[in-house]
Structure formats: C-alpha cells, structure tokens
C-alpha cells in the first residue's frame, strides 16, 4: 500500500430515488519528502451509466444527460479501479463523505478508512460562517487552487479538486490519524444551526436548551449538545464571590 497518497473522490448521481452514480471524479493528495501534504498530478473523471434515466432536476445541477452516459460503463465496472488504485492509498476522502460512502462500499474499497473534510473543517476552522465545499473555497482561498480547474461546480473532478485543497490544508494542520478519528464521529457543530438559538455558540445555551438539543433528530446536533454537556460536567464548580476582607464576626 502507498504510504503517501490519499484519494479524494466525488460522485454525481442521477436522482430518481436510488440516485445511481453517473460520474466519479478523483484527485490525489500526497505526502512530500518535506513532511508536507500537497496535490499530485493524478486526477480524473469517468462518466458512469446509472442504469436508469437521469432526473431532469438533477440534470439541471450537473448537466449530465442520458445521452452522455448511454455507452458508459456501469458503477460496478468502474469503482474497483478508481477506489483501489494500483499501489493503494492510506485513506479515501470526500466532502460530507457519508454520501460517497453509500456507493463506495467496502465491497469496492476494502478496509481503507475515510476522511470527511466537512467534519474536519468544523474542528479546524470553527470560526468560519459556513462549511460547504464551495463556500470553503471562497472563504479560505486555498493557495494554489486554479480557478478554472475547479469549474464547473457540481461536476465530479472539479469538486474533488476543490475538496483536495481543503484536505491538504487540514492534513498540514492536524494529523492523518486525528482527521480519521474526527471523521468517524458525527459533526461537531460550532454554532446552533436552527431554531430560536440559531447562530449562538453552544457555550451560551442554557442547560434546558442543551438537554432539548441532546434529543434532536439530527445526529450532529445531538452529538454536539452531548459534547457540550460533557464539557460542563467536567468543568470545576464556579467559585462564589466573596468579599476580600472576611467578616470579623
């Protein structure tokens, strides 16, 4: 297995319920001799026959038409070579990787771990207002990102290329092991995403509000609320205000 490569992947799908894959793109990130991670020249994309018509509302996003994929190979034919390249890789990565993992199953990937750049960005850059792939692109302006290579958005290779810049910078701020560990947990949200407390940091919430969020339907909200509750339970009890001079009585 290669000890210096992580493959970033991005999928476009066809909609219509099962959302079968209609394009896969990739961009490799490699570890240099200087100990820093950087993008390699290895990237590409392959159109995939989803086995059913592409939904019009999905075509309106990525502009891949039925005619474009009519003679393309099926996902089961494409996936092994893309996801298990010659020489192997340390990990696979994607932005909101849970989506890609629906299709990039262990059948195709083996036991290679995943990195979710969305979850890791929440941890490393919590001060940012938003964390979508394209918002991170313009909020951060990653060094070396060639604007035209990252276009059009919502196509597999350009999106993987943009994600790879985020991954490179994350790897150069935190260890590979740490990114994998964060990716295995739900997202740790820096601020409340919705409701009356929207936009507040979790530290500002009342105990009752936190307990309510700990029962939320959203797994990331539940996890973040539980994390804040655990933090508070471990904090030392506040010291009562006392006069500098004690009473003589």
From TrEMBL:
CDD domains: DEDDh. One of its GO terms (molecular function) is nucleic acid binding. GO terms for biological process: DNA replication proofreading. Residues 5-176 form the Exonuclease domain. InterPro entries: Ribonucl_H, RNaseH-like_sf, RNaseH_sf. Coiled coil: none annotated. It comes from the Bacteria. Gene3D superfamilies: Ribonuclease H-like superfamily/Ribonuclease H. GO terms for cellular component: cytosol. This is DNA polymerase III subunit epsilon. It comes from Tianweitania sediminis.
